[in-house]
Specification:
Layout lengths: L2 E7 L13 H11 L4 H4 L1 E4 L19 H20 L2 E7 L4 H12 L5 E6 L20 H6 L13 H11 L13 E4 L6 H10 L2 E3 L1 H7 L1 H11 L5 E7 L21 H12 L4 E7 L10 H18 L1
Parallel strand pairs: 1-2, 1-3, 3-8, 4-5, 4-7, 5-6, 7-8
Helix pairs in contact: 1-11, 3-4, 3-6, 8-9, 9-10, 10-11
Amino acid sequence: MKKVKLIEVKSEIGAGTRGASLGVDAIKIAALDYGSTLFRQFESVEVPTENQLLFESPGSPYAKRIRGIISMCEKVAVAIKNPLKNNEFPIVLAGDHSTSIGTVAGIRMAYPNKKLGVIWIDAHADLHSPYTTPSGNMHGMCVAAFLAEDNASNKMNKPDKETLELWSRLKKLGNISPKIGYSDLVYISLRDVEPEESYLFKKHKVKVFSSAEVKRNGVEKIARDALAYLNHCNLIYISFDVDSMDSSISKGTGTPVRHGITEKEAGSLIVRLIQNERVCCFEIAEVNPTLDKENLMAENTFEILQRAVSQLTY
């Protein structure tokens, strides 16, 4: 039985579509609608955001609001490190996915000598850098930041010196860079990958379980195989972007993609993964209730959260 600590990060400066900062409260409203006491049962910490920067110029077109991302992720890292040091299990409820850069930094700061594996349940690879980004949105660069990956050989952009200095600071967050290697990374439900990212997947033989494989082989086998692939890791962090679910379900997110997993598959997968004693942190990101009808995405996400918490605390 784990002692759960909720970490709320209502940030959306890393996204291109507005509204993800409201996702955490939308999940809480879903809990109220279900008559759940989950948010009364566990201690919760809210990490200050930099959302005021949305009213200012985004700065570099190739790393929008990166100063704010660094500032916010530094705070997230501390908010993750402290509960881990106290043998608590942090569950991060995030706005946009760039929060994960701080989460991974915090885990590595708490356990600098341990090998961390990452299970990235997401429609997108998030493997861009300022050299390759088509949008400049930082939530598409989180995994590249953990890996300290520039992918400069595929560069399409010419970021200025200041942008590259800030990118370097972001990669080095927590004074550990890279934080993971490619062999420490597993993707599940990935299906929207750009050519620059595909190059890295081929080069580094990145492990991917597609939505089709989840449906064909079942959640149990995918979870078992993913955990077995990360056998060499002492710790595992699970990051769940709600757009991993099919766009018929995931209207309430900024970048929905067809042919994803169902909410039941997502919930069962996370429950099965979180049973593994090496899993030390779980993150949910990218619920955007402004794009949704009747708070459906937050309700589906709350059910998944509830299942994960029950598994941790039974």
